[in-house]
Amino acid sequence: MPRTRPPERPPRPGPGAGAAAVSNADIAAVFEEIANLLELEEQNPFRIRAYRNAARTVLGFAPDIAALLGSGQALPKLPGIGEDLAAKIGEIVQTGSCALRERLRKEVPPVLVDLLSIPGLGPTRVRHVYHELGVQTPQQLYAAAKDGRLGKLHGFGARLQEKLLQAAGARLQGGRRFPLAAVAPAAEKLAEYLRRAPGVAEVTVAGSFRRMRDTVGDLDILAAAQASEELMRHFQAYPEVAEVLASGPARASVVLRSGLQVDLRAIEPQAYGAALVYFTGSKAHNIAIRKRAQERGFKLSEYGVFEGSRRIAGRTEDSVYGALGLAPVPPELREDRGEIEVAARGRLPHLVERADLRGDLHAHTRASDGFNTLEEMAQAARAAGLEYLAITDHSQRLKVAHGLDAAALRRQGAEIDALNRRLRGITLLKGIEVDILENGDLDLPDEALAQLDLVVGAVHSYFDLPRARQTRRLLRAMEHRRFAILAHPTGRLIGEREGIDVDMPAVIEAARARGCCLELNAQPQRMDLFDLHCRAASERGVPVCVSTDAHRTGDFDNLRYGVGQARRGWLEKKDVLNTRPLAELRHFLKRCMR
Ligand code: DGT
Ligand code: CA
Ligand code: CA
Prior knowledge:
binds 2'-deoxyguanosine-5'-triphosphate; Beta Polymerase, domain 2; 17 strands
């Protein structure tokens, strides 16, 4: 991914709330937001650039800054971070925010900040459409794109107009969906905050969040507690709350500053399990189990399983499933895709877990577009509990990402050998994320690929080929004798780009015939392979690897979301390549890279 991509819309830590857990990414997000707000205000470009550079520096800095400052150490001298910015870092670590950001948030019209979140609109363009066309909302943007006014603006043009028409249309239609990983830290902080309210025994974030869907529309939070105004007041006082939509003693809905809606319900403890089942969903799963209840003469609702007027289950989820003659169904499977039948037969799959992963087979370093060194990435992978890490920087064709040519790859190989002699507890594998060219050729000569432990192939161009050509292109790439893993098979970017049009069953069949592996890329905006394709792959005996595509040390955290999606695809430990011990993995790679 190019270095210039702005970081994902990050969770915004609020003053006081969980301030202890401010990560480097949180600090960078504050700086990035300040830069955007300054740019909307047309402030001095040097000042804006200073904040953008600072955001990047902080992201690329391996040690955890909050921990460092917390232990009484001083922040080391970092490039581009002078006294003023260092003081702001201290302020953010202490309070979760900084006075400058809060002031700017008040100064800049919120509508412009909202426009900024439409893919394709940066601060400069937001200012442009605002000043020249009076555009303030996604509707107005859509209208201006539709009737051609947008394309006539200086620096816009027909292609951008088309892209913005789509982006604004998508926003208007489905509302906005948030990548799971982008909301998870904020959701967990809020749940933690609610657990501290008086009278609350238990808090669960249910809904699509709990089912680990790749994106969530809103958060559905349940608290085991008696209905009370006090609890709802505590909820509304959460510093990230931007707007209260509705409020009563048993439930309230708010919108957070990030734009995410959150519903909170207070549930009496005797019905907590039944409410968990109901609000975890999915709707399709709920309908199917309600039908099953009816067939047995019971009534199932969010309050429990009832025989006549007698509640026979409801306190726990297991009791609800048990009353219906079902083994407890893991949330990730609750989509009415056959899970009820297997739960009835007691044959639910033993889903893969994060702790089963022994390695990561896709990661970048500074050599291409990553932010950290080989050694920093290796240490971080080990700290994440991994035993091996494949270094797969980009290949030469990807100029924006400073791709490696054969000579650079050889030099990196020597560095990896030296590190492997020195490092304990982690083994680096030599790899490449090689570009799949338009015709299916790989972007490096065979001799270069032959030096490597594994070759990860990926599409980064020609996303628009017609299905038959796109499919032929992938199959040809996979035929290459050194090819091992197909990275992010569809290439979609959530909220930004549809995936390529490709015959996925044919790709899976080719992977089976060829003995290679498909990647489930756990980058928050990718989450690619999709759950149903994971399942199809495992049914054909094609291994899937859950990889982070890490560009910085913190990215190994994303493995848990990748595992979530793998579980949604019914994958067990045996189906996931990187659960294998290193020796077995090497054996697999040897066989496939003939
Ligand atoms: P989202 O928010 O779009 O990512 O998806 P969910 O699954 O979180 O859906 P949401 O927030 O609309 O509702 C939360 C859960 O409540 C949903 O998973 C199942 C349950 N639910 C909502 N509406 C209905 C309904 O009409 N019938 C039934 N049986 N359950 C429903
Ligand atoms: Ca929801
Ligand atoms: Ca909801």
